[in-house]
Each structure stands twice: as structure tokens, then as C-alpha cells.
Amino acid sequence: MRRTLEEASVGYVLAVPKSQQFHAPFARIDHAIAQAPEEAWERMSCGDGAKGPRVYDWVAACLPAIDVFDGDTPTHQRWMLARRSLTRADEIAYYVAYAPNGTTVADLVRVAGARWAIEEAFQAAKNECGLDQYEIRRYPGWYRHIALAMLAHAILAVLAAQATEKGGCRNDATSTVPVTVAEVRRLLDVLLPHPEPRSDPIAHALRWSRWRRQHQAVARHCHYRRRTSSGNDLRLES
């Protein structure tokens, strides 16, 4: 994937395991970072979190150009980057980066911190819109569920942004925090009209239970059929 991005001149900051290998003389990334002097570590924030700036110690080093891929006049540089916890020095995350010439370590740190926003968006879509709440095995059903869940999340995100902009939220103790996607969903649950209550909720609950267990039985049957058809040995306990 990194080679594809580099061929398209697309920069990246990607997390890698500590066993990531480099060309000599760096060897593994964790071994190379361990040789960095203490004064090479810089304390920087990679973005604001729910409880304030996310501050870590960072260290970075440029990697030598690869003539075969970069040519005589490279327009980009490769980096190795590490993030260390302030409270636990043994907690270190490792990254490799590819960025245009002139990119600073602060730029790389900012890009690395953007990952939290993406993870928070996925988590909000799961919690508020049921992104991961499906029991299907065919692509059309999965695609429809994911598309509708992402559309619902996009609508909630736009409403939250509009409410925050109109509310004029400030970063002080006299104001309110920005409106979140979860808050918008809770408000819509209260403000939007609900259908009339069911005349027989017990009968409805029983029908729902039966329908759900029927679909679970179909899913279980498909799982077992796939396992047996792929040649895996199964031993069912009675």
C-alpha cells in the first residue's frame, strides 16, 4: 500500500509494528528509536481530545532516499516517527511517513493525531446509528445497512455542526460544550413524533422474539454450512 501511495505522490503517516524493518543502518524501527538521545524527543500536542490537548513526546528522523524509486531529485522524504506516553515511557507507538520536502515534524504529528477523529466517527456511527448491528451474509444486505447507517450519521453530524455554529460555543467555563452527534440523536428521540403505542405490546414482543430467533437460526445454519464446505473439521457436542 505504501508503494502505491508513493507512486501516486500521496503523502501518508501510517502506524507500524515495532518490528518494522528498514534498510541498513537502521534495521528495526524500535531499535533505531531506542538509539535516539533523550534531547531528541519533543513534547507536542497531536490535537485536542475530550479532556484537553493530547500531549506526547515525539521523535522523528528522515530516512535516506531510494534511488530506484525517488530518482535524482526527490520531491518527497520518508520518515520514521515515534510517540511516547508521558506517564509510561515504555508505551511507544511507531509510524512511517512519506511527505513533501519541507514538511516539519509538527506537520507529521498533526497528521498522526487525525486518526483519533476518524476512530471517534466510527464509534459514534456504531453507538448512535447501528453501523455494526447487522446479521447478514450477503453483500447487498450488508451494503444497504452500511449505506443507511452512514447516511444517518452524516445527517446527525451536519445537524450537530449547525447547532454548534448557531449556539456560538466558546472554550470557557461560562459557555456550553459543542453539540455532539449523540446529543442530537437524544433530542430527536424526544422532539420527533412517535407512532401510537401498540395495542398489545406483549404479543408484539413475542412475535419480535420469534422473528429474531428465526433469522439467528438461518445465520447459524449458513455459518455451519460454510465451515463444512471449506473442508474444516467440525465436532458438534450434543
Q: How do the SSEs run, as a string of H and E?
A: HEHEEHEEHHHH
Strand tally: 5
Q: Which regions have little confidence, pLDDT < 50, spanning 5+ residues?
A: 232-238
Structural class designation:
alpha+beta
β-strand percent reads: 15-25%
How many DSSP H or I helices? 7
The separation of the N and C termini measures 46 Å
Portion in helices: 40-55%
For the biggest sheet, the summary is:
5 strands, antiparallel
Side-by-side strand order of the widest sheet: 1-5-4-3-2
What would the average pLDDT be, to the nearest integer?
Answer: 83
Q: What general form does the structure show?
A: extended
Radius of gyration: 25 Å
Descriptive labels:
238 residues, single chain, alpha+beta, 7 helices, five-stranded antiparallel beta sheet
Can you characterise this structure?
The chain is of the alpha+beta class. Helices cover 46% and strands 18% of the residues. The chain contains 7 helices and 5 strands; from the N terminus they run H-E-H-E-E-H-E-E-H-H-H-H. The chain has helices spanning 2-7, 29-34, 67-70, 105-129, 139-167, 181-191, 201-229, and strands at residues 12-16, 42-49, 52-63, 76-84, 92-100. A 5-stranded antiparallel β-sheet has the order 1-5-4-3-2. The protein is extended. The relative contact order is 0.09.
